[in-house]
Design a protein that fits this description.
CATH superfamily of the largest domain: Metal-dependent hydrolases
CATH class of the largest domain: Alpha Beta
CATH architecture of the largest domain: Alpha-Beta Barrel
Radius of gyration: 24 Å
CATH topology of the largest domain: TIM Barrel
Order of helices and strands: HEHEHHHHH
Largest sheet: 2 strands, parallel
Number of helices: 7
Strand order of the largest sheet: 1-2
Structural class: mainly alpha
Helix content: 40-55%
Shape: extended
Number of strands: 2
Number of domains: 2
Distance between the termini: 51 Å
Length: about 180
């Protein structure tokens, strides 16, 4: 980072250290801490949370496989996550970073600068205009069903075209052709 930028943002800029057990992470953390000391830029501890409890790791992996079109049992599939990416308690984070408590101190300092109020049990969705005579829930259900039908139709269309040996149309082009 250029020295001028570091000086301008010194109180608001931190280098991040994570310990989630992923490949290469230890070397990266060591390099970040070295850079922090060399440049005088504070570092802090974070945890790249992807699920609430360790027990949810397998379900998360299944969601990732569905997204990626991969099989859980495929030994060659890319594994970007570890079972350590659950929401850790303060005590677990303290244990994980017991060799570098200043990283946690810096994390707490950043948290003190944040202001967030969460009302549990209250809807946090923005007000969205819906057609007269329709509830938000009914409108969302109808829109989701319409989108699903369009995707299935496009998928069937692409499959038929592909089975004939031609390239399937891009969904936007197909929609434009139908509505044009």
């Amino acid at each position: 980072m250029p020295d001028s930028l570091a000086g301008a943002v010194r109180r608001s800029f931190y280098l991040e250290v994570q310990r989630t057990g992923r490949a290469g992470e230890d070397a990266y953390a060591d390099a970040v801490i070295d850079l922090s000391l060399e440049r005088g830029v504070a570092a802090l501890a974070t945890n790249d949370v992807r699920f609430l409890t360790r027990a949810e790791f397998e379900a998360h992996e299944a969601r990732v496989c569905i997204h990626d079109g991969a099989l859980l049992a495929d030994p060659s599939r890319v594994r970007r996550y570890s079972e350590e990416q659950y929401l850790k308690s303060p005590a677990e984070m303290a244990e994980l970073f017991k060799d570098a408590p200043e990283l946690l101190d810096n994390t707490v300092e950043v948290a003190k600068r944040c202001s967030l109020e969460i009302r549990l049990g209250a809807s946090m969705l923005p007000a969205y205009p819906v057609p007269a005579g329709s509830s938000t829930e009914d409108f969302l259900r109808e829109e989701a069903a319409r989108g699903l039908r369009a995707r299935f139709k496009a998928s069937r269309s692409a499959t038929l075209v592909a089975s004939r040996g031609a390239e399937p149309e891009a969904p936007a082009a197909a929609e434009a052709a139908r509505s044009g």
